Amino acid sequence: MKRIKRGVVVPEDEPPAKQLVTHWFQDAGWSHDDAEWLAPLALKRFCGEAETHADSVSNAERHLKLIAGSWSEVRAAGDVHRDCALLVAYARLVGYPGQPESLHMLRHTETQCNLPNATTPEPSAIAQEFRTHGANFERALSEGGLPGQYECESWHLDYCKRWYLGDSSLAYSPPSDAWSLMRSLVEDAGLNLSNVLNVNSLLEIGSDHMGPEPPLRTGVPKRPDYQTIESRDPSTLTAWLLVLGPDALSFLLPRLRQATSEHELASFAFGIRDCIERWLTCVTGRQDHFFSAGVWLAEATKPFMEELERRLLVAGLENHNLRRAWLWFVRCTAEAGDPQDETHVAPDTRERALHAANESIARLRPLLARARVRDALHTEVNSKSSVSGSASSLEPWEEFEWEKDHLMTCATILYLFGGLWRGMKPMLLAMRALACPCVASDLRYWEEDRQRGRDAPSPEPTQPPTPWQLIPTLMVNLFHGFARREQQQDPELQSLRGEFAAFCLRGLADRWTERERREAAASGRPRTNDDMLERSPDWRYCLVRAAMALHINPEGKGHRILEAASRIDPDPDVRSIAREAYETLRRSEGLPDGVSPRRTVMSAFWWFRQAHLLSLGFEIDADGAQRTRVKELTRTRDQEAYDKPQS
Fold first, then answer.
1. How crowded is the C-beta side of 17, counted as CA atoms within 13 Å?
2. DSSP structural state of residue 176
3. What is the DSSP letter of 534?
4. Which of helix, strand or coil describes residue 532?
5. Distance CA 465, CA 146 (A)
6. What number of other Cβ atoms are within 10 A of residue 343's Cβ?
7. pTM score
8. Which partner from 1, 223, 241, 467 sits 20 to 30 angstroms from 434, CA to CA?
């Protein structure tokens, strides 16, 4: 019989510690190949290079078994693929164990385990090892999200806010593990966010912001709830903005450039915009506080603005949604940087934006000419309607609700790049076109609760009609917001006051040709209201008063128009006030002592609102209008004091 050779196993010359820990990983469910590289990495993380004997791992045994247990924990949670387990193992190896109390020992391991010779690998070295062995963190995040240990940290948002705003107390408050892990995946592991973010979700969000095409609109757009923030959902851009700031946007620029249609491009841009606004709301309190984000945001959004502009020039400036998206990114980039610095928004882009913004507001005037005050019952019914049907089913105020957001963007751009008058004029024209009130009977454009006596009259409307009150509100708020900048070059706002006064006086002229004037002079035919450029005598009267309030004779010629109006205007009250204004402006020597230029502008606007209400047949609450004037001038004085440079 042939003798059988003994099948003895000769021990390899291998450190017992590595062999032991490798068995722990295999017992936990890892494959032989994964255990072969994970075990040495974990040993190096917790025991250092020099420790090779099994005895040396006793102090770190619990930590090493927790790393090994990542596989079984992930499998128990239902995430069976390898990448999710590797993500948890990576997080624990770099020191971000998550919420369960049993894992907190992984922090400050060297101190707790009393391992003076331990040499902890850098996170980038750990990440490189994982990537070398095929760890697909992008797949793990996109399919499984952040592991469950990172979903219950209530202070994650608070830390994000304070980190972005540079709160010095952060030195004593460590970041959440979710925040730290997400940053590490990008900075150390080279995570490609474009393979993690849910692009389809961004497109859907963007479509909701744009609304359906005009023939399909009905009801009013649903206003986004910017207080709702998915702070730890790795498929959302907002979550990464909270962790990385505006740097997160760069991952989406290639995808934006790949958009195959103008509609897809605009939808994608609006989706990105929504996330930026949610992020700004979280860290600054307002979705349009671009200046608080600073140059960091401006540099991140500039490439998006430039790509949208390039595609818009190809598609044509008439593309409504694409133009809306582009103008928002122009505003965001300019306000985040220095609006007066052309570094971020080039001069030719500024001019195109000014032209597009002015044209967009002008296109609203036919809608404003159909404006009606909405009644409460109709509002309630239409606010519940779905986005379907035909444009004919929309009330004018509903159409305006779709345009409000774009109106605010356009008005801001005009003030940003064009100055006070270029921003104010389209809003004045819009107000003149309105066929219903946009202010209350006491000339307020802001809501206010005021107690009245039982028998005191309550003139209608008691509050500024919505949504039309946005027009005067925007004009005044932006005037105060940009007046300080303009007064640095023009302390008395002479340019603005001159343009405003000329605008007011322009309507006093007639529509006749020179031949018609000669024939009228020969025949004695009087002019009628229809013969005047401004047909409403209420408007002409109040415009003269507004021009007087501005205390300037535009180009030294305004008194000539007033002299002619005092002779030819068909309304006796207008002739009378024109005669008085002629004497005042002819002798005008500038601002009276103690009168600020901003107060004159607000006084002129007070008269403008009276013209608006009177021409529509509404009676003005005289006492209330006086109170409104006092409040406005007080607020103006307070704003001037706030804007005054501190000596």
1. 22
2. P
3. S
4. strand
5. 47
6. 11
7. 0.87
8. 223
